Amino acid sequence: MDRFVFLFSAGLARGAVLALFALSLVIVWRAARVVNFAQAALAVAAVYAAFAVTAATGSYSAGLAAGLASGALLGALAERGLMRRLGANAPLPGIIVAIGLVMVVQAGLAIGFGPEHRPMHPPFSQRPFVIGGVPVLSPYDLFTLIAAGVVMGGLALLFNRSSLGLQMRAAAFAPETARLLGVRVSRMVTLGWTLAVAAASLAALLLVPNELGLNPHAADLLFVNAFAVAVIGGLDSPAGALIAGIGVGLLGSLVTGYVSASASPLAVLALLTLVLLVRPGGLFAAKEARTA
Amino acid sequence: MTALACHDLTVGYGDGAPVIDGLTLELGQGDVVALLGANGAGKTTLLRALTGLVPTRSGRVELGGRELARLSTEERVRRGLALVPEGRSVVVELTVDENLRLGGLWRHKHKARKAAVEEMYALFEPLARRRDAAGHTLSGGERQMLALARALLARPDVLLLDEPSLGLAPQVTAQLLGVLRESAARTGLTVLLAEQNVTSALSVAARGVVLSLGSVVADRSAPELAADPALRHAYLGF
Shortest Cα distance from A222 to chain B (angstroms)? Predict the structure, then answer.
């Protein structure tokens, strides 16, 4: 039981990061109908900015703010500078350009900062709290959960309660109709990328201290898992990203603990395969529309 | 005063022959004009070109005397031009209420927007009963009602309507056109109504313009048009 509690709480924190990254993929998908394969590379570039600012100032929060700001900026630049110039109707150019961007960004980071793993220190202890003799979440896990939760809650409020969010949703679902209602659709797409890459940067920033350290490939595995999460949840569904993210985080943690660490990616793949067989659109795919 | 005008407008797709060919048309403030013509006459293309959804090859489009050529669709809308496109232009993923609010976002501030939405619910009673229903659960008639309400909510100066009667029962069509006629009379709204359903269109409009192969072949008062069997046979097919 002790082991279960520990694995469960570790899985929650891991799941929150996965959910946040998957949500960022969902936001770009909804805004531009493109899977942004460069999301991890852009996020890691933002983490480097955070790392540099923290190293220079000694303040974690200054680094955090710099990381989020550079993530937002990189998202806007990627959309305005590259993605916008591609034909809107074919998905393939977007994917190829994004993969090219990954190579450029990762090579650029390796040239600029070196390929080695740089240890990144978390702002809180990673030693778990012990409650009644059972180790549970560490303070840093708690911080991760709260930070990811606050950002996801904020994004949910933005999308569902604000006029801006209403315009973003309309622009995503029906661009032409939205334009006919005076919505400046191209700004909404840029804003979607801005928010998404900022959210992805936060996810990467929260993840890196738990891993080997910062290097240009630090978020590659996070991207792969979060992509699986987004597909399991249904690429169009923010709620799906949240629930599937927590689910996959727990699954990975429990399989690692009870079976072996090497079985954990297989378990995620098995879940992905099962979901695609049973519900090809993902667990929370949009329901069928009335056509009569 | 001229509310909407186009001069020598030519529109086409790809390298093909022009769909709208040197068309000139003027709508006075408060006019309700029916745009008639068989399939392929260019009605939809004209409306889409006026709103900037289809690029024009040459010619000018003016709204209230101001040239629109360089403006994007959303900027034209924000200057008072509205289009209810053919078929189902409701954002089906949003609720009825969200669709309506979306229509008024650029026009009204928060409180005024609420009042404007309530006004539309009073005008279209079936929508009031379904305000929290998702767009994809609405019937064809309800969707067309919502699309019209959403356009009226923004208080446009000129409203372009593309086949509002498409696929609807005569009773629903009559109800929609009744609301349109009443709103136009009350607010001085200028309307260009593209329709295949000539009888209902001419019952609302004071003037009718007949298009054929992208050009105006007749531009007369509604009663005159309705009473001209030769014209009806030649261009409208009944």
Answer: 30
Asked if residue A291 has pLDDT above 60, the reply is no
Nearest Cβ partner for B105 among A163, A169, A173: A163
What φ, ψ does residue B212 adopt, rounded to 5°? -145, 130
How do residues B107-131 score in pLDDT, each as one tens digit?
988 899 999 999 999 999 999 999 9
Token couple for B107: 């026009």
Task: Report, as an integer, the average pLDDT of A179-184.
Answer: 95
Contact predicate B6/B24, CB 8 Å: yes
Cβ of A196 under 8 Å from any chain B Cβ? no
Structure tokens at B57: 């090859």
Alpha carbons B164 and B171: distance in angstroms, whole number: 13
Q: Is the pLDDT assigned to residue B235 strictly greater than 80?
A: no
Which domains does chain A carry?
2-125+134-278 (1.10.3470)
Question: Which of B96, B100, B105 has the highest number of chain A CBs within 10 A, making it the mutation to test binding with A?
Answer: B105
Closest residue to B83, CB basis, from A163, A180, A292: A180
**Digit-coded pLDDT (tens) for B59-96:** 999 999 899 988 999 999 999 999 999 876 899 989 99
CATH 3.30.260.10 fits B2-92+150-236, yes or no: no
Q: What value of ipTM does the predicted structure carry?
A: 0.93
**pLDDT above 70: residue A290:** no
Task: Say if the Cβ atoms of A290 and B138 lie within 8 Å.
Answer: yes
Phi, psi at B32, each rounded to 5° = -115, 110
Query: What digits encode the pLDDT tens for the residues A22-32?
Result: 999 999 998 88
Q: Which of B102, B137, B139 has its CB closest to that of A181?
A: B102
Chain B contacts to A (CB-CB under 8 A): 51, 53, 72-74, 77-78, 82-83, 85, 89-94, 98, 101-103, 105-107, 136-140, 150, 154
A213: left (phi over 0), alpha (psi -120 to 50) or beta: left
